[in-house]
Specification:
Blueprint: E1 11-18, E2 27-34, E3 37-42, E4 53-55, E5 60-63, E6 65-67, H1 83-86, E7 90-95, H2 105-114, E8 120-123, E9 125-126, H3 127-134, H4 145-161, E10 165-169, H5 173-176, H6 180-192, E11 196-200, H7 208-222, E12 226-228, H8 242-255, E13 260-264, E14 269-272, H9 286-295, E15 302-307, H10 318-325, H11 329-339, E16 350-355, H12 359-367, E17 371-373, H13 385-400, H14 406-413, H15 415-420, E18 437-440, E19 461-466, E20 469-473, E21 476-477
Parallel strand pairs: 1-4, 1-5, 6-7, 7-8, 9-10, 10-11, 11-12, 12-13, 13-17
Antiparallel strand pairs: 1-2, 2-3, 5-18, 14-16, 15-16, 18-19, 19-20, 20-21
Family: Belongs to the metallo-dependent hydrolases superfamily. NagA family.
Domain Amidohydrolase: 53-270, 360-472
GO molecular function, one term: N-acetylglucosamine-6-phosphate deacetylase activity
């Protein structure tokens, strides 16, 4: 990954409870960091003359966490210290999600090389990004054969620049019209470069199992691993079905030779556009809209967090907005959609936080051995997931509710995603690996971010090291920016 940065800090870390990322039991020991990498791991290491030491007093030491679905790229240059991410132990963010990536990636990566962030950045190539580039001026339709050829060439270009594969957001406007055949064709191009496919699927609600079947079909036909983004069962008609209906999907994928995985964040509420609750885009069909609102918990469970035509409405529920406008919630939904219709390249903003996931389904996904963890968060977002996800898993779901053991959770935060990305020298505490490390207190770690205070930092994350440099120390952001661009191996 290039020359050793001048800021790399040599240090001997002692008296640590080491969770090495492999999923095994922790052990007491010491770790020596030299030139940005782990030089030695042992039950006890003696300090060399003049060597800087740090005694953890029995605190836990883990590899730096990998956020497998992040939107940190949206503000990485405005907020390069990435406080919301690093304070919860994240050392690497995986961006270019939901079909949206920086374009061209070569330029984005070059800028990050010159203006590094506090953490490492890896990216997918976004399907919607390619559609807008190849189908100008209108990507809100099916692609023509020549346009698909152009998109394939762009996938090759972005994979050569270092993308890890193809991402789609099939529930969103610019990709909604894409056929399965179009996605298979582009995923096949990504597969030729050793990439994988990740998708915000066509439906996360009533038709979620059909959407999962399409995901597996794409993997089978394109011959590449696939991943379901921020997996959830997000409408009441499919609640309480994860344990019953998802295992057959996993078995079907296995029989077809498809490596199916998913990422998940630890909240029963989600953030997206209000439009996604009507997946077939029939936004002005009153009966469908009313059913969609009901399936998502009702208008009190849909909180508008962004509304460009009237910013004063941000923070109010659909029910409250309907009362202000003196209309039904269905009519309020249609007015919001109508007043934020895209015009040319302009995308007027509207956003919603919906509470429509059952706790038992969420717990099942968190514990599943084939899921990894993510924030799906922005660096300055309105959803607490952006600042709290990893601490929430360690505190609420590991320590308090014992949904999974701590060692297993850390494996799903570190070595498993590193393996998915084929990063052979990250995600473990072992000699030769990059020194991405997290110091935390298992007895105290907890999230504090809420909808009312989405940026509130967690507690119990004492220090975070990225590439041998402390970016968080004593729970405080240091301002150091040792992050690197992680390009796909072989690109």
């Amino acid at each position: 990954m290039g020359a050793v940065p001048v800021w790399a800090e040599d240090v001997l870390i002692t008296n640590a409870l080491i969770y090495d990322g492999g999923g095994g039991a922790p052990f007491a020991g010491s770790v020596r960091v030299e030139a940005g990498r782990i030089a030695a791991v042992a039950p006890a290491l003696s300090a060399r003359p003049g060597e800087r030491t740090r005694n953890l007093g029995g605190l836990a030491l883990a590899p730096g966490f990998v956020d497998m679905h992040s939107h940190a790229d949206g503000a990485i240059f405005e907020n390069p210290t990435a406080d919301a991410a690093i304070r919860q132990g994240i050392a690497t963010v995986f961006v270019g999600q939901d079909g949206e990536s920086n374009y061209p990636l070569a330029a984005f990566f070059a800028r990050l090389d010159k203006q590094p962030a506090a953490l490492n950045v890896a990216s997918m190539v976004g399907h919607a990004t390619l559609r807008r580039e190849a189908m100008k001026p209108n990507a809100l339709r099916a692609s023509a054969p020549a346009e698909l050829v152009r998109m394939g060439a762009l996938v090759e270009q972005e994979m050569a620049a270092g993308a890890f594969g193809l991402s789609t957001g099939l529930e969103y406007p610019d990709s909604f019209s894409a056929t399965t055949e179009e996605v298979v064709a582009l995923a096949t191009v990504a597969a030729r470069s050793g990439g994988f496919y990740i998708s915000h699927m066509r439906d996360e609600g009533n038709a979620v199992f059909e959407a999962l079947a399409e995901l597996v079909e794409i993997g089978s036909r394109a011959k590449l691993p696939v991943q379901a983004s921020h997996i959830k069962l997000a409408t009441t008609p499919v609640w309480h079905q994860a344990a019953l209906r998802v295992p057959p999907v996993i078995e079907s994928a296995r029989l077809q030779g498809v490596d199916l995985k998913a990422d998940v964040y630890p909240y029963t509420f989600w953030q997206s556009t209000l439009r996604v609750i009507v997946p077939d885009r029939d936004y002005f069909n009153a009966a469908k809209v009313e059913k969609a609102i009901a399936d998502n918990g009702g208008p009190t469970h849909l909180r508008i967090v962004r509304y460009e035509p009237d910013a004063a409405l941000a923070g109010k529920t659909l029910d409250e907005i309907a009362r202000i406008w003196k209309v039904t919630p269905g009519a309020a939904f249609m007015r919001i959609v109508r007043e934020t219709e895209p015009v040319g390249d302009r995308r007027p903003e509207e956003g919603v936080i919906g509470t429509s996931v059952s706790e038992d389904d969420l717990r099942w996904f968190i514990a599943a051995p084939w899921t990894m963890f993510c924030t799906d968060g922005e660096l300055n977002g309105a959803h607490p997931r952006g600042a709290g996800s990893f601490a929430r898993i360690l505190g609420k779901y590991v320590r308090e509710e014992k949904v999974l053991p701590l060692a297993a959770a850390i494996y799903k935060m570190t070595a498993l995603p590193a393996s998915r990305l084929k990063l052979t020298d990250r995600g473990r505490i072992a000699p030769g690996f990059h020194a991405d490390l997290v110091v935390f207190d298992p007895a105290r770690v907890a999230d504090r971010a809420t909808i009312e205070a989405p940026a509130a930092p967690p507690v119990g994350i004492e220090a975070v090291m990225v590439n041998g440099e402390w970016v968080v120390d004593g729970g405080q952001v240091t301002g150091k920016r040792p992050g690197r661009v992680l390009r796909r191996p072989g690109s």
